[in-house]
Amino acid sequence: MSKMAVRKKSKSPQRFSFKPVAVDWPKIKLVGAITGILAIVGIIGQMIKASYHLWPIEKVIIQGDFTYMQQSNLVALVNELPEKGMLFVDLNYLQAQAQQIDWIKRVEVQKIWPETLVFHVEEHMPVARFNQRVLTQHGEIINIAKGDFRFEHFPQVAIASEVDKQNYYPMIWREFKTYKKQFELIELELLGVTIDQASNWHMQFVEGINLNLGRKDRKARVTRLVNVYSAIVDKEKIKSIDLRYHNGLAVEWFENQSKENIKG
C-alpha cells in the first residue's frame, strides 16, 4: 500500500496597518514653556538665596544716650536675621523687633554701605521702682532682675502681693509726686512708700521719720500734717507719725518711745 505525500500549506504573510497619530503641538509648547519658566524661577531663587549673603553685615553701631539698655540685645537681634547680607535686610522689620527690647523708647535703623548697620536709640527714663519692676517717665513698666541695684536711688514703692496690680502704678506714682511736693513745704523729703495688704500707706523720709497715712482720706491727712507740722517741737527726735485719726495725729519719739497726740 503506497503512502500519500501530504503537502503543508504555507501561511500567507501578515499585513500591518499604520494609523497616523495627531500631535498636539500647542500642548507640547505649553509644557515646554512651563518647564522653562520653572527652571528660570529655580535659578532666580538660587541667585536670590545666594545674594542673601552678598555685602555681609560686618559692623553694628549703636548711637544714643542710654544707661540701662543692653547693647548686646541689639547685636543678638542682627545675628538672628536670616538675611546676612545688606541688600535684603528689611529695616522696617528690624526696627519693629528692636522696639520690643526693654528700655528702648524709640529706635531708627540705617544702612551705611557696604557693611554697617546703625541703630539710633532713645531710652526710657525710669522714675520709680515698684517691687521688682521699674516705672518709666511715660508709664512703661519694665521688669528688673532681683539684686539689680541700679535703681536704688529712685523712689521705692513696695506693694504687698495681695494688692500689687500693675495698672495702678501710674496712679500711685501721681499721688506720690503730689505728696512729695506738699512735704517739701515743710522740709521733709519723701523717700519711699510701702503699701500693705490692707492698702494702708506707710511713708519713709530721708530725715528718718516713718509716717502711717492709712488707707482712706490720704490727701486730707497729708494736708493736715502740713498745716500742723510747724507746731511740733524737737522734730529731729520724731520716730513716727500716725495720721489715722479723724481730727489730729499721734507722734512717737526716739527718746522715750512715748506717743504724743496732737489735734489738728
Automatic annotation (TrEMBL):
<keyword id="KW-0131">Cell cycle</keyword>
<keyword id="KW-0997">Cell inner membrane</keyword>
<dbReference type="InterPro" id="IPR034746">
    <property type="entry name" value="POTRA"/>
</dbReference>
<keyword id="KW-0472">Membrane</keyword>
<dbReference type="InterPro" id="IPR013685">
    <property type="entry name" value="POTRA_FtsQ_type"/>
</dbReference>
<feature type="domain" description="POTRA">
    <location>
        <begin position="55"/>
        <end position="124"/>
    </location>
</feature>
<dbReference type="Pfam" id="PF03799">
    <property type="entry name" value="FtsQ_DivIB_C"/>
</dbReference>
<dbReference type="Pfam" id="PF08478">
    <property type="entry name" value="POTRA_1"/>
</dbReference>
<keyword id="KW-0812">Transmembrane</keyword>
<keyword id="KW-1133">Transmembrane helix</keyword>
<dbReference type="InterPro" id="IPR045335">
    <property type="entry name" value="FtsQ_C_sf"/>
</dbReference>
<keyword id="KW-1003">Cell membrane</keyword>
<dbReference type="InterPro" id="IPR005548">
    <property type="entry name" value="Cell_div_FtsQ/DivIB_C"/>
</dbReference>
<dbReference type="InterPro" id="IPR026579">
    <property type="entry name" value="FtsQ"/>
</dbReference>
<keyword id="KW-0132">Cell division</keyword>
<protein>
    <submittedName>
        <fullName>FtsQ-type POTRA domain-containing protein</fullName>
    </submittedName>
</protein>
